[in-house]
Amino acid sequence: MPFNHSRPFTAILSACLVMTFMPGAVRAEEAAETEKTKLLLSAGEVKQLIDAADQSAVILLDIQDRDAFSKAHLPGARWIDVAEWKAAAMADSGDGLTNRQRWIELGSELGLARDGRIVVYGGALPNAARVWWLLKYLGCQHVSLLNGGIDFWQKQDLPVTHKPIDFKTSKFQPTFQKHRLARIDNVKQAVQDGSLFVFDTRSKAEFAAGRVPGAAHLEWVRLLTDDGTFKSAAELRRMFQALNLKPQHTAVTYCRSGGRASVEAFALELAGYENVQNYFCSWQEYSSDAEAPVEK
After folding, report:
1. d(CA 36, CA 62)
2. What are the domain boundaries of the chain?
3. What are the DSSP calls for 134-195, one per residue?
4. What pLDDT does residue 93 have?
5. What are the pLDDT digits (tens) for 76-87?
6. What pLDDT shows up at residue 131?
7. pLDDT digit string, tens, across residues 77-134
8. Which fold has domain 40-177?
9. Sign of the Cα pseudo-torsion (18, 21, 24, 26, in order)
10. What gap in Å lies between CA 282 and CA 110, rounded to an integer?
């Protein structure tokens, strides 16, 4: 049988094409997924999302008060009533966090879907982080924060508008991620057996006035740079490591009513920690429990 010179060449060429293009395709797919699940977005990255042809691919949630929103918000943003969401979560001593019907209503009226991409931003970071955490707790998979909020956005001379938008409601179906939530009984048990690494995110004065025994103090503002953006993941990791937090620990954050604790929970995840819980009802609940031990 005569030797076919084209066959080896064809085989080699095919192998080269596979080696050249398949890894790139895989990397592109992985990069797209990483981008979609990214926790923290820069102003430039959010601007790119807004400029994209299909703006329905991302939902921007603005946590400013209604008056501030009406004066200036990111193009295409939807206003979310943070006070209403907080009240829903804190209702019935935190049992509101499992009120499925209430979360269906709140998520549906904003047109949310668990698999959609959501970016939360505003002026007060604890409120933005509170909404971020609640969305993650409700099962939303791709939720990010705008680094620096609307203040940093405007300092970059990026566009804002006062015009509201029309959007469709949805049939939101929450799936409670209970592993993200710490309850008072979990915290009280941890005081006895050290099963959780508890972070107090409040001010020094609040911490000194009374705290969960054994809690490490790391005020939430220390997680930020002077311009209000988050410190790098590496720097955050060093801060947590300095307090002896280990990867195998389950970290629990608390403040007074869940907002500042949500900032620290976000920073822990940004730093790469996987076992992170938010004691959302926080000191407001804990200090009201006569059986809860307090350290001063």
Report:
1. 19
2. 40-177, 182-286
3. HHHHTT-SEEEEETTHHHHHHHTT---B----------------GGGB--HHHHHHHHHH--
4. 83
5. 999 999 999 999
6. 98
7. 999 999 999 999 999 988 999 999 999 999 999 999 999 999 999 999 999 999 999 9
8. Oxidized Rhodanese; domain 1 (3.40.250)
9. negative
10. 27
Place of tokens 């000191």: 283
Three-point CA angle 281, 147, 262, nearest 5°: 10
Token pair 């407001």 is found at: 284
Torsion angle (degrees, nearest 10) of CA 158, 68, 81, 91 = 120
Between 3.40.50.720, 3.30.70.260, 3.40.250.10, 3.40.50.1110, what CATH number should domain 182-286 receive?
Answer: 3.40.250.10
| pTM of the complete model beyond 0.70 | yes
The Cα 265–Cα 259 span in angstroms is 10
* C-alpha neighbours within 13 Å on the C-beta side of residue 283: 22
- Under a CB-based contact definition with an 8 Å cutoff, are residues 263 and 126 in contact? yes
Read off the pLDDT band of 55 (50, 70, 90). Answer: low
Check if the beta carbon of residue 223 is closer than 8 Å to that of residue 125. Answer: no
